[in-house]
Amino acid sequence: MAQIGYYNYYGVKYKNNVESVTDYHRVREIAYNKDKLSSNAQDPNAGYSGASRRLQLGLNDYASSLREQFSNEGDLREYLGQKYFGRGMIYTDRWENPQAYAMFENDLHMAMFGVPHNPINDPRSDYSQENWKEYDTRVQKERHDGISSQFAKLMNNLVDIKDSSLLISFNPYDMSDNIKTNVLLDGEQNAKTRAIEQLLSRDTNAKNAFYYTLNLERNNLDNASIAKFRAFESAKNFANVDLRDFRVENGSFISSSGDDLMQLIKDGISKDEKIKNDYKGAAYEYAKQNIDILIAAGGWDNVKDLDLKIAYNTKDGFYLPNINIQT
After folding, report:
1. In what side-by-side order are the strands of the sheet with 317-319?
2. Contact assessment for residue 111 and residue 135, using Cβ atoms and an 8 Å cutoff
3. Fewest CB within 10 A of the end CB: N or C in the chain?
4. Element (H, E) at 185
5. What are phi and psi of 151, to 5 degrees?
């Protein structure tokens, strides 16, 4: 489960910046339960505050997956706009589609700040644990139907797999901008599988298929393996170096030429104009957190690779191998 609490993940100006994720609701709970009277006492788990907390708990892991997939606010807004309105959100949605607007705002704020915007008009604010399970199942099915339909359209008039099944394996440890794939058709490679690999290599198709699979498998994956992938991505994106070229030495990753990985990442982040100044510290801490997990394990070779596979057929769309998704 992702850490719960407030943080300015996208470095938005005029928002409070804290050094680490801070659970202000828990702070209020502790203050409320002290053995003394307060003229301003208010149960943080009742009323508006309680509804906000229920939303925060229910959406926390989903918000974490959104942050992992969307590195900037614009792409995040566009995705959520399409999810709730079939287009970008417009101002009149506030009163024309109040429930959809409330859900859009709360998803957005949870991803950007780790806290919901406003529980009013959001039907999920009164969800029970069973309701959240049903909601998660519905969201998973919507994601499944959406990406399966997109993939079918991409293959249309290019590759006809008829009643056969595809098995797509991902290699996320590549220094290119995309993620490498290996495709099997009924257990074999042929001209069709090579065409599908080319299809996935376009734009960010493979990356989006990978993140869909990662979110689907998240609860079945080793946390250290996830940290290994994230550490590799940080080294590549922030310092343009391959983490596999570094060894653990005195509690740090050091290259053959003596360069310290975290210093290279720090320098890269400071020079990267695409990262807002207010977010540079958060970007560094994110990288360090995952790299420290790898260091604690003894280095690259001591942690299993992130081994992800997804299957596909025309009847069921995408599904985990041997675990079919009901549609």
Report:
1. 180-185, 166-171, 308-313, 317-319
2. no
3. N
4. strand 180-185
5. -65, -40
Please spell the DSSP secondary structure of 283-325, one letter per residue. Answer: HHHHHHHHHHHHHHTTSGGGS----EEEEEETTTEEEBTTBPP
pLDDT for 5 equals 92
In angstroms, rounded to a whole number, what is the distance separating the alpha carbons of residues 244 and 236?
11
N-to-C CA span, the chain: 27
Look at the chain and count its residues.
Answer: 327
H runs (alpha helix) in the chain: 24-32, 47-69, 73-85, 93-96, 98-113, 129-155, 191-201, 205-217, 223-239, 261-271, 277-296
Q: Quick check: 58 and 124 in contact, CB under 8 A?
A: yes
Three-state DSSP class for residue 2: coil
| Exposure string for 158-184, b = 16+ CB within 10 A, e = fewer | ebebeeebbbbebebbeeeebbbbebb
Predicted confidence band at 24 (pLDDT cuts at 50, 70, 90)?
A: confident
Percent of the chain at pLDDT > 70 equals 95
Span 255-284, average pLDDT: 87
- Please name the amino acid found at residue 276: K
Q: How far is 107 from 101, CA to CA, in rounded Å?
A: 10
The per-residue pLDDT for 326 is: 42
Query: Are residues 265 and 284 in contact, defined by beta-carbon separation less than 8 angstroms?
Result: yes
Are residues 174 and 235 in contact, defined by beta-carbon separation less than 8 angstroms? no
Instruction: Report the pLDDT value the prediction gives residue 158, as an integer from 0 to 100.
Output: 81
Rounded distance between C-alpha atoms, residue 168 and residue 300, angstroms: 24
> Is the separation of the CB atoms in 312 and 166 below 8 Å?
yes
